[in-house]
Design brief:
Radius of gyration: 21 Å
Structural class: mainly alpha
Strand content: under 5%
Shape: globular
Order of helices and strands: HHHHHHHHHHHHHHHHHH
Helix content: over 70%
Number of strands: 0
Distance between the termini: 35 Å
Length: 402
């Protein structure tokens, strides 16, 4: 998923693709995840999740191997069509894989969903950190095709390990994940709506760089794809390393205080993106080393903004009367994933459009402003809110059936 970032914009530009279309190529993956996730939630009640994961890995591997042959396509129209089609199937594979993994984790660790989600985020961060670096290095070694062929082959080769290591989930446990109502009640809770908006902004911040960071560094500093990949790795490494620390702090402070952590994370993310631009008129040096510092600050801060959100949403839902069970966890997880994927759609498209019309610096300033504004809104709402999870429980509200 992340191996494209260091070199695809350059290759696409050489074939005549605009930044807007390049952004759409990146966003297509998330569009499909948003659309297909509800169907995948139904599919896990019919097909064992382990088999779904195996099929998803096979499809993902084939897509990567196929992508490697696109270097030979000379026509811009055919190249664009091939990229879009492959990204659609990659999105289907990712959606199936994500839903199936969540189902297995919910069944194996029914009392530790929040903690397990945090651990999953660590490994996601690790994958995102090594992806751009590996993609850039393989591109330098063998050109456009090598990153896709290597990753695709490894993905398919991993299938036997998956078949041996993953447990078989009994169908009665899978069916427990089904939910036939409750989502419309949950999204009426103001605190949950605001936290979802915060997730959206954080996802936009992560993804707006995908189509524009490599061209920016190439034009400003003549940076190679491997340099771009290593710089992007700093963002994901900072996210992955800090996630367990923030997770421990979240467990210690409790839900009544976690909104403050989210606000601090949003403010810190805003500072990191301002440094990355850099924002005009602030006399911030526009140097490679400053880009590295900015990405580290953003990685640390975005982890703090994102990590408490799932547990906070779940606690606010339970405090509002929803049952503390897998059904509620499933609704929250679905909302969380859908909104984050929406940010993955908006980020590359909006980033490419702003960069093409106003430049990288202004684009980053706009994204930083969104983080700052979201932090201010959260602070005003929660600082003046008279309702907290603890106070809800003290009122002993009757439980809503989900």
């Amino acid at each position: 998923m992340s191996i494209l970032t260091p070199f695809f914009p350059k290759e696409a530009e050489m074939k005549g693709m605009t930044l807007d279309m390049s952004g759409l190529t990146f966003s297509m993956f998330a569009v499909v995840v948003v659309i297909t996730s509800p169907f995948m939630g139904f599919l896990v009640s019919l097909v064992n999740p382990k088999n779904i994961i195996v099929g998803a890995l096979f499809l993902s591997g084939l897509c990567n191997i196929g992508f490697g042959f696109f270097a030979n396509i000379q026509s811009l129209d055919y190249f664009t069509l091939a990229c879009f089609t492959t990204r659609i199937f990659e999105g289907i594979a990712a959606s199936a894989n994500s839903v199936a993994i969540f189902t297995i984790l919910a069944s194996v660790f029914p009392d530790r969903i929040g903690g397990i989600m945090g651990i999953v985020e660590v490994f996601v961060g690790l994958g995102l950190s090594v992806g751009p670096a590996i993609g850039g290095l393989l591109y330098n070694l063998g050109g456009f095709s090598m990153p896709f062929w290597v990753i695709g082959t490894i993905t398919i080769a991993f299938i036997p390990v998956t078949m041996i290591a993953l447990p078989v989930i009994p169908y009665q446990n899978v069916n427990k994940m089904e939910n036939k109502g409750g989502i419309f009640e949950i999204i009426k809770i103001p605190s949950i709506i605001l936290i979802l908006c915060s997730n959206l902004i954080t996802a936009i911040g992560w993804c707006y760089l995908s189509p524009i960071f490599e061209p920016h560094l190439r034009k400003e500093f003549d940076a190679s794809p491997s340099t771009v990949g290593l710089l992007l790795s700093l963002l994901s490494i900072a996210y992955a390393i800090s996630s367990p620390i923030w997770g421990k702090i979240v467990d210690l402070v409790g839900t009544e205080t976690t909104w403050k952590l989210i606000v601090v994370g949003l403010f810190g993310s805003s500072i990191g993106i301002v440094l990355l631009g850099p924002t005009p008129y602030l006399n911030i040096p526009n140097q490679i080393w400053m880009k590295a510092v900015a990405l580290i600050v953003f990685g640390l801060s975005s982890a703090l903004a994102l990590l408490p959100t799932f547990k906070s949403m779940l606690d606010y839902a339970i405090a509002d009367g929803f049952r503390d069970n897998e059904s509620t966890s499933g609704i929250i997880s679905g909302l969380w994933t859908s909104v984050y994927s929406l940010g993955e759609i908006i980020g590359p498209i909006g980033g490419a459009a702003l960069d093409e019309n106003f430049g990288f610096s202004i684009c980053s300033t706009v994204v930083a402003g969104l983080h700052l504004l979201m932090g201010v809104v959260l602070f005003i709402f929660f600082a003046n809110s008279r309702k907290s999870p603890k106070k809800y429980h003290e009122m002993l509200l009757p439980m809503k059936v989900t």
